[in-house]
């Protein structure tokens, strides 16, 4: 069984081109088999992006688990931030590189197993995290972000109520200053400030 958070895949490629309007702006994305949300922009990522006050985003931004790239591309196209995008899935990384060219953004994309290749601190880490990795690794990702955030930096992520949003919030309240910035059809957008 191949998952979108595996490094390699033997699943046959079947690229498709999708379009998404986010906050009134049109984006084109190539997607593929074995990459998260192959059919195009998923509701959770859309909710995340449309609930962020993008005008307040600046400095260094990390798109964690970038997939084919919608978060990093959206942030880069609407801010003057320096955007890094990481994933473990090679197919996703290749798509993200292609999509950054299609959408004319200048971003830095590289492979990383969780934070293994990350060597700087960020003002923002933004993610629709890979829930299917299980609670242990999910918490490792969310808690581990603290080591890669600047003082007063923000981890912003989306999680569904049915995937443990409330217990995740409770857990993270011991680590960050936590605020729910949006609830939409079971999806919670959560801002964790590193104080």
Would you tell me which CATH topology applies? Answer: Rossmann fold
What is the share of helical residues? 25-40%
List low-pLDDT spans: none
How many DSSP helices?
5
Q: What percent of residues are in strands?
A: 25-35%
Described by the principal axes of the CA atoms, the overall outline is globular
Task: Calculate Rg over CA atoms.
Answer: 15 Å
Mean pLDDT: 94
Structural class: alpha/beta
CATH superfamily: Vaccinia Virus protein VP39
Helix/strand order, N-terminal first: EEHEHEHEEHEHEE
What is the CATH class? Answer: Alpha Beta
Number of domains: 1
CATH-scheme architecture = 3-Layer(aba) Sandwich
Find the count of extended strands (DSSP E, 2+ residues). 9
Largest beta-sheet characterization? 7 strands, mixed
First-residue to last-residue Cα separation: 40 Å
Side by side, the strands of the main sheet go 5-4-3-6-7-9-8
Provide a concise account of the structure shown.
The chain has 195 residues and is α/β, with parallel strands linked by helices.
Description:
- By secondary structure, this protein is α/β, with parallel strands linked by helices.
- It has a single domain, classed as Rossmann fold, CATH 3.40.50.
- The protein contains five helices and nine strands, in the order ββαβαβαββαβαββ.
- The protein has helices at 43-51, 70-78, 90-102, 135-144, 165-172, and strands at 16-22, 25-31, 60-64, 82-87, 108-111, 122-127, 149-160, 177-184, 187-193.
- The strands form two sheets. A seven-stranded mixed β-sheet has the order 5-4-3-6-7-9-8, sandwiched between helices. A two-stranded antiparallel sheet has the order 1-2.
- The longest helix is centred in the middle third of the chain and has 13 residues, at 90-102.
- The termini are far apart.
């Amino acid at each position: 069984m191949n998952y979108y958070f595996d490094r390699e895949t033997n699943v046959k490629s079947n690229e498709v081109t999708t379009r998404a309007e986010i906050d009134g702006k049109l984006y084109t994305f190539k997607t593929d088999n074995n990459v998260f949300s192959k059919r195009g922009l998923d509701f959770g990522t859309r909710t995340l992006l449309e609930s962020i006050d993008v005008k307040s985003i600046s400095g260094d931004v990390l798109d964690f688990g970038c997939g084919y790239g919608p978060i990093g591309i959206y942030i880069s196209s609407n801010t003057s931030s320096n955007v890094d995008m990481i994933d473990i899935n090679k197919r996703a990384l290749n798509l993200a590189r292609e999509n950054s060219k299609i959408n004319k953004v200048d971003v830095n994309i590289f492979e990383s197993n969780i934070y293994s290749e990350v060597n700087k601190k960020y003002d923002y880490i933004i993610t629709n995290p890979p829930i299917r990795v299980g609670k242990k690794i999910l918490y490792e990702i969310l808690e581990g972000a603290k080591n890669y955030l600047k003082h007063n930096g923000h981890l912003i992520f989306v999680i569904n109520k049915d995937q443990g949003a409330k217990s995740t919030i409770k857990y993270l309240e011991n680590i960050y200053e936590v605020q729910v910035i949006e609830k939409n059809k079971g999806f919670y957008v959560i801002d964790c400030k590193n104080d």
